[in-house]
């Protein structure tokens, strides 16, 4: 099962924060970790305080907290500056009625405004709801409608994708630009902040169990569900930042995810700032040259990305790589989809570093299965359970299976990062806990005799394309809105670059004839309404969809089994 394993390799000056996995596991307690937080003494809890303000109080106000790069443009923010700006934005939002417990959506590109908005909302005790910047009108509408959202922070370009007529609950649209760039009914947050002094703003102290953020995530059925995390997740996020990201005082850390995805919130904002690291934000989309240039320019030391990105860099070729000086890098991590052994070998050979796979989910709130810098990597394995986390492989009856057998990947609940609730959907929340005391991930896996866990696929129809989670139901529903489409079944088709691509099988309405133009029109229809990442890359017209005899449900598994496996 395992390929050639890779021993740890690091410069002596970079001794890992965690040096012995077995030892840490046997003596670990989450209560010990709590001592790292100011609230363990003061009783005053707020994630934003631990990420920003406490570092200023501790004398690190002058340290660079955020380095934003977009092409030739750069911005640097110190912890001091971030404290002042998040205070002002929080005060401005408060002056317009945002209060503790309110959900505030944040629909912005990866830029400083986005990161500041996230922390300002949290400082107020409100719930931050980041939305992926590529979402189109209906993806935005479904999410805001689900929780009757009242507030959103956005910019003039993205604001046009908010269908206000369909969203009567939405009271205030804050724009991060001047008043001249606002349309009627929008509020210039930039001007409001200009007029606001930070004097007198004080952080809203909350309970550890209070809601922190909401991430909408797709499953195999229904529309996306709102996963709510609590402030207590910081305990888990801090400790994984310390041991798995291995963050140290002088690290410059770059996580490539957008905050609309859970990795872009937990491991691009919270975990690194809880560990007082300098974070790098790259404003552009994926491009091999600009990514390598970002590492070179910002002197990135720790880098967290996803298999599709590594595969794209690998296929961009060594010629591109040779143009950049990447000697600053010392630790690389991956998440979101299976990491192929060949990519790990490429990293070892071309970057001189191992790529450390990690496994977790939106619902888990932080990493649960990890490869640590001090431990052996078995390429093809996601690693071993983080200390303090118990993982088992269960059969369909919820019994623990022996090593080497494939079954349901389950985690002993609870742990500090686990979701607090699924927004107003108790049935969905309960569905994760069918077997007493276990959280069921929906993934299938095998554990070997050393405790290493190997991903084997999903037990449901959820699609994972480039590490982004896509619900087939959402795409099928959108396809059915196209006049030409009578029926639709959507699957993840195995793909060498993206892991899976979205593939749709459709039956046409009578009166429509199959043509390349029609197929392109249907694809663009989904792309422009829902989002680019959910639009089918392949559409196949068939006469009839396979369905169950009794309930008439589409048999996606059967559609999937028709696809040749491509490696
Ligand atoms: O199927 C697993 C896959 O991504 C799912 C979780 O997706 P999401 O909630 O969007 O969170 C992604 C990043 C935290 C999982 O159920 N997945 C995540 N990490 C890995 C993975 N599959 C294989 N290997 C991984 N390392």
UniProtKB/TrEMBL annotation:
Keywords: Acetylation, ATP-binding, Ligase, Nucleotide-binding
Keyword field contains Acyltransferase: no
MF annotations from Gene Ontology: acetate-CoA ligase activity
EC number, as in UniProt: 6.2.1.1
Domain AMP-binding enzyme C-terminal: 474-549
Metal-binding among keywords: no
Residue intervals of the AMP-dependent synthetase/ligase domain: 59-421
Catalytic EC class: ligase
InterPro entries linked to this entry: AMP-bd_C (IPR025110), AMP-bd_C_sf (IPR045851), AMP-binding_CS (IPR020845), AMP-dep_synth/lig_dom (IPR000873), ANL_N_sf (IPR042099)
Highest taxon above the source species: Bacteria
A Pfam cross-reference name: AMP-binding_C
NCBIfam families xrefs: PRK04319.1
Protein name: acetate--CoA ligase
Taxon lineage: Bacteria, Bacillati, Bacillota, Bacilli, Bacillales
């Amino acid at each position: 099962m395992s390929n050639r394993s890779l021993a740890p390799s690091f410069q002596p000056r970079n001794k890992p924060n965690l040096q012995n996995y077995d030892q840490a596991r046997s003596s670990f307690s989450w209560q010990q970790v709590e001592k790292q937080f100011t609230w363990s003494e003061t009783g005053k809890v707020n994630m934003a305080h631990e990420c920003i303000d406490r570092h200023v109080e501790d004398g690190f106000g002058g340290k660079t907290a955020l380095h934003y790069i977009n092409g030739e443009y750069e911005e640097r923010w110190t912890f001091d500056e971030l404290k002042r700006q998040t205070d002002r934005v929080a005060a401005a939002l408060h002056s317009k009625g945002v209060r503790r417990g309110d959900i505030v959506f944040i629909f912005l590109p990866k830029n400083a405004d986005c990161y500041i908005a996230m922390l300002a909302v949290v400082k107020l005790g409100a719930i931050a709801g980041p939305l992926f910047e590529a979402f189109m009108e209906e993806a935005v509408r479904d999410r805001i409608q689900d929780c009757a959202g009242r507030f959103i922070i956005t910019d003039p370009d993205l604001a046009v994708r908010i269908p206000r007529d369909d969203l009567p609950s939405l009271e205030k649209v804050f724009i991060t630009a001047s008043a001249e760039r606002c349309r009627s009914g929008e509020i210039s947050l930039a001007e409001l902040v200009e007029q606001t002094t930070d004097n007198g703003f004080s952080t809203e102290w909350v309970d550890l169990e209070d809601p922190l953020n909401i991430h909408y995530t797709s499953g195999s059925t229904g529309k996306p569900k709102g996963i709510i995390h609590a402030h207590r997740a910081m305990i888990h996020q801090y400790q994984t930042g310390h041991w798995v990201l291995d963050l140290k005082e002088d690290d410059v850390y770059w996580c490539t995810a957008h905050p609309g995805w859970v990795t872009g919130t937990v491991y691009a904002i919270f975990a690194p700032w809880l560990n007082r690291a300098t974070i790098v934000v790259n404003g552009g989309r994926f491009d091999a040259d600009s990514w390598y240039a970002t590492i070179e320019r910002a002197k990135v030391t720790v880098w967290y990305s996803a298999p599709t990105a590594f595969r794209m860099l690998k296929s961009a070729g060594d010629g591109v790589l040779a143009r950049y000086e990447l000697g600053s890098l010392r630790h690389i991590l991956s998440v979101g989809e299976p990491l192929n052994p060949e990519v790990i070998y490429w990293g070892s050979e071309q970057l001189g570093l191992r790529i450390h796979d990690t496994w977790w989910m939106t619902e888990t709130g932080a990493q649960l299965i990890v490869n640590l810098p001090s431990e052996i990597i078995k390429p093809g394995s996601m690693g071993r359970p983080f200390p303090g986390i118990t993982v088992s492989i269960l059969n369909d009856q919820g019994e623990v299976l022996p090593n080497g057998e494939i079954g349901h990947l389950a985690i002993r609940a609870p742990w500090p990062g686990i979701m607090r609730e699924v927004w107003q959907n108790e049935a969905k929340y309960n569905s994760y806990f069918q077997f007493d005391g276990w959280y069921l991930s929906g993934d299938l896996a095998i554990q070997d005799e050393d405790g290493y866990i190997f991903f084997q696929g999903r037990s449901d129809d959820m699609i994972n394309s480039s590490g982004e989670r896509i619900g087939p139901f959402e795409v099928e529903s959108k396809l059915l809105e196209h006049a030409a489409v009578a029926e639709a079944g959507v699957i993840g088709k195995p793909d060498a670059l993206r892991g899976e691509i979205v593939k749709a099988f459709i039956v046409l309405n009578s009166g429509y004839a199959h043509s390349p133009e029609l197929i392109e029109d249907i694809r663009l229809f989904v792309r422009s309404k829902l989002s680019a990442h959910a639009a089918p890359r392949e559409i196949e017209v068939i006469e009839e969809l396979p369905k169950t005899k009794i309930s008439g449900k589409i048999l996606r598994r059967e559609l999937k089994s028709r696809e040749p496996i491509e490696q």
